[in-house]
Specification:
CATH architecture of the largest domain: Distorted Sandwich
Number of domains: 3
CATH topology of the largest domain: Beta-galactosidase, Chain A, domain 5
Structural class: mainly beta
Amino acid sequence: MKASPFPHHPRAHTRSAGVVVVLFAVLALAAAPAPAALEYLDNGIVRVGVDMVRGGAIGYLSLSGTTDNVVNTRDLGRYIQQSYYAGPLPYIPAGALQHPAYAGWGWNPVQAGDVYGYQGLVTASSNDGTTLYVQARPKQWALRNVNADGLVEQWLTLDANRVHVHCRLTNARADSTRYPARHQELPAVYTIGRLSRLFSYTGSAPFTGGTVTQITNSGPPWAYWSATENWSALVDANGWGLGVVHAGATLTVGGFHGTPGSGGPLDDATGYIAPLQTDVLDQAIVYDYDYTLILGNLDADIRAWAVAHAPTPGPNFVFTTGRAHGTTGNLTDARAPFSGFWPLSLDAADPQVLLPPSLWQAADAPCVLVTGAWRTQGATAEMFFAGADGVFSGAKRVEFPVIPDGQVRSYRVDLTANLLYTGPISRLRLDPIIAQAAGDAVDLYAITTASPAAAPGVPSADRLAIIATAAPNPFNPGTTISFDVALEGRARVDLFDMRGQLVRTLLDQSLPTGHAAVAWDGLDGSGRRAASGAYHVRVQAGGQSGLVRLTLLK
């Protein structure tokens, strides 16, 4: 998170007194800050205000009828606001002045303004009493009066004691370089010093009523934790305060700086919470997210609402327009926004797609559907899973066959086929192919716990690939191929050698819906013993198809 040369500032790193002197000399060159100009929404329960001279950042939140603002607005690095991170490091455009306390600082637009005191510019706004909308051009935090090359937008609505916020970054960078993924504050939330007790649920059984954790931190540096119920809160001695709920984020950073239990909006003491996702921010990306602010009691209001609105357990990620916070390793992907799918070029050994961290119980998501089009030389992919510790290992994986013909299909991956898939699970990793070869590519649409058909642009489950299994495998002299038939009709099971030559048709007849099995005795179509080695069995039934690889031993 941000460093700052302000004395005792919550974003400060270790610094010398000389840096502080430089800051005040530089600030003397900046225009005097304008007084706050707040635009409000008020539903009779809560009142929220955005500062129209500071990029539309949220600078006010209180119960209606009071002036007890819980937002810390001591400087432009605080507020409740959008703040994004990308390369290069350092980011110093031609003619720009980077503050000496931020040597090496990267690209970092901040909604309210920069460290020198120059403020973000509101470029459009509206308020119909129900929705408060702001569009603004943020400033590069570490640079002197440098506009960000893009726009931020936010939409605020009220619901009882809750503020629902939708945020959007529309990037317009001239720099087309692909920079690595970085943590994004979604959003950055700073509160008054009176709200000094920081709580979250960090356990491995979310949404079951387990004990919450108090996080003690006197930052910076700030603490990191896994908010497995997707909420964190800063409250006073009576348990009343501000909660932040972001349903898609578990990794969170924050803490408290200063003297606990006292301090208002302009005082040094402050709490800090930022739900995080790790993302690449492409040159022309349109990047959206949602969060909710809740004023109230820790248990009865903040946690209770988060639990009542718990997301569907398990991994549910759709890639029709973007990465859904996924990241990659050892492959090249296209720039977002996408046109219906995530294009992956498997141009290095051991290509990987890492899904964002979450937490679910294995029993709640025994299998996942992987929807995509494979154009690869190999026909086997892998799904890795990590327990509550977030660590991947070779023992925690499930192989599954794919059909590398470029057709879009959904593959049902039975994670329970691995006996280690049990208890809390925090993350998945898709290895699109085991043995990568030149020219391999995959168009990835979704990884979900159920049919992704409701998502626009994702093929429905009627194109589900048949997942066939064989046991024993390897085998000698015979084996049994098993599969499920989703639609009654003609079924065919063909055996091919690795050159693609038909060896034998094992089944060609009508089958009812349900489980089916066919045996192979190791003989070819002429009744001769087949040679030892690898074979592919193609199963076709009800308009669906699948592959299973066999190994005949001699």
